[in-house]
């Protein structure tokens, strides 16, 4: 069953050992893991309480809240199309709910202030027929916090987003997901209900080695919060998409927005956050994004380290006791440390840049702070601080001769090349910040001017 020939034997042994420890210590009936690198799955293995029935990469497990990331992709597709705005109120697209005042962005980022769960009974262990309509998933007063004031995880919030997709598309959310995301990505083993072969879900007694089957309910309108079933093979394909993108499904800018924290951390030593349908977290010095999930009988984790080009998926059929997200992060760390990413070879640009563009490169100064401006592919620019501090940023070339910031402080800001009356480049302007070829020179273009006496000791 192994697809691990691209990893060294020592790495494969370390991965299997960590998986085996996770299954034994977590007392999971079964546990399956996979690692993705270079755009495909390079390792997959499993452990089970039954040696003759070890699951492979095609066995379905319930993935719980990883479902939310799929729903978020559907919503961001609507945003890409201009049909829905992130700051639109929900009632603009889904009228007649008690949460119509919250925005699409707030729902995606769990900052809507809505309740974490539905009114009783608990939706995860009861049939969706108990909540047949969207109106049944929220109480008459569902707000727990002011919208936008803080992060507060809301399962009904994602059920509302699924209903929004259905209203706009005129079809069920899973039907839309299958047509617009799963089919293009080749994910034919990700379904709304289990399809054989699939694992059964169990609870393991906390003080004895005995098990109890968990109910496998169809949660109905709450499905967008955690209904999906999938495999490590399919989730590996999803990880490749979340890492490298696929313009058939979603723009690169939308994917970047999904994994950008939407709210400020609550303390300086932050270890986790939430973007738009994706979780972000720190694992030591490593930054990860992805999502965890749980439903009765199952836990799931899909995590990606873009810098190391490694993703890991871990699925188990136990309600609790198996820290799958931490385990996935450890698998990433093992591969990154035992087989560090080999950088792509340096290659020159595909076309020779025009002299005027090449002349913009080199040292620039914001006041007295030195920077270097470097030319990248497709006429892109990169600003790099040369001192001990300063704001780095990449810029995308625009048809009008300006550049747009892609990250950091200058994200979305415009970089303009300003020329003097003689047609020569005078300075750069980035959102009113002036960069000159010398420190505080020429004085006439520096905001506030420069002291006439000049530099002194």
TrEMBL record:
The keyword Hydrolase applies. Residues 354-437 form the DUF7586 domain. Its EC number is 3.1.1.103. It comes from the Bacteria. Residues 22-336 form the Beta-lactamase-related domain. InterPro entries: AmpC-like (IPR050491), Beta-lactam-related (IPR001466), Beta-lactam/transpept-like (IPR012338), DUF7586 (IPR056008). One of its GO terms (molecular function) is hydrolase activity. Pfam families: Beta-lactamase, DUF7586. The keyword Hydrolase applies. Keywords: Hydrolase. This is Serine hydrolase domain-containing protein. The lineage of its organism: Bacteria, Bacillati, Actinomycetota, Actinomycetes, Kitasatosporales.
């Amino acid at each position: 069953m192994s697809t691990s020939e691209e990893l060294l034997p020592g790495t494969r042994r370390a991965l299997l050992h960590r998986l085996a420890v996770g299954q034994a210590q977590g007392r999971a009936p079964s546990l399956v893991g996979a690692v993705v690198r270079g755009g495909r799955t390079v390792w997959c293995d499993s452990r089970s309480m039954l040696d003759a029935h070890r699951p492979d990469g095609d066995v379905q497990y319930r993935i719980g809240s990883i479902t939310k990331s799929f729903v978020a992709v559907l919503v961001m597709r609507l945003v890409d199309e201009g049909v829905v705005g992130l700051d639109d109120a929900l009632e603009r697209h889904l009228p007649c709910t008690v949460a119509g005042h919250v925005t699409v962005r707030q729902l995606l980022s769990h900052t809507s202030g809505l309740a974490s769960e539905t009114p009783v009974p608990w939706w995860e262990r009861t049939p969706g027929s108990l909540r047949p309509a969207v109106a049944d998933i929220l109480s008459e007063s569902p707000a727990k916090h002011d919208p936008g004031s803080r992060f507060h995880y809301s399962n009904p919030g994602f059920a509302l987003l699924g209903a929004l997709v259905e209203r706009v598309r005129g079809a069920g959310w899973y039907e839309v997901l299958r047509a617009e995301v799963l089919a293009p990505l080749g994910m034919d083993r990700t379904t709304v209900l289990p399809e054989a072969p699939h694992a059964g879900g169990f609870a393991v007694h906390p003080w004895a080695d005995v098990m109890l089957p968990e109910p496998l309910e169809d949660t109905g309108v709450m499905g967008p919060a955690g209904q999906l079933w999938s495999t490590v093979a399919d989730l590996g394909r999803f990880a490749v998409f979340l890492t490298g993108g696929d313009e058939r499904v979603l723009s690169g800018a939308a994917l970047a927005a999904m994994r950008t924290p939407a709210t400020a951390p609550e303390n300086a030593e932050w270890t986790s956050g939430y973007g738009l349908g994706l979780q972000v977290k720190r694992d030591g010095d490593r930054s990860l994004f992805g999502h965890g999930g749980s439903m009765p009988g199952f836990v799931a984790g899909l995590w990606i380290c873009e810098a190391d080009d490694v993703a890991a998926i871990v699925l188990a059929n136990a309600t609790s006791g198996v820290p799958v997200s931490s385990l996935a992060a450890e698998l990433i760390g093992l591969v990154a440390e035992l087989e560090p990413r080999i950088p792509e070879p340096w290659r020159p640009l595909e076309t020779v840049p025009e002299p005027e563009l090449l002349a913009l490169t080199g040292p620039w100064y914001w006041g007295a702070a030195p920077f270097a401006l470097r030319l990248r592919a497709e006429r892109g620019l990169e600003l790099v601080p040369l001192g001990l501090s300063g704001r780095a940023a990449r810029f995308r070339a625009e048809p009008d001769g300006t550049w747009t910031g892609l990250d950091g402080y200058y994200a979305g800001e415009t970089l303009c090349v300003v020329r003097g009356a003689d047609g020569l480049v005078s300075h750069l302007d980035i959102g009113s910040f002036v960069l000159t070829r010398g420190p505080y020179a020429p004085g006439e273009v520096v905001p506030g001017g420069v002291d006439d006496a000049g530099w002194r000791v």
